[in-house]
Amino acid sequence: MYYIAVYDVGEKRVGKMLKIFRRYLHHIQNSVFEGEMTPASYQKLKYEAAKLCNDETDSVIFFELNGKYMNKEIIGTEKRPASNFI
Amino acid sequence: MYYIAVYDVGEKRVGKMLKIFRRYLHHIQNSVFEGEMTPASYQKLKYEAAKLCNDETDSVIFFELNGKYMNKEIIGTEKRPASNFI
Question: Which SUPFAM superfamilies does the annotation name (chains A, B) (predicted)?
Answer without folding.
Answer: TTP0101/SSO1404-like (SSF143430)
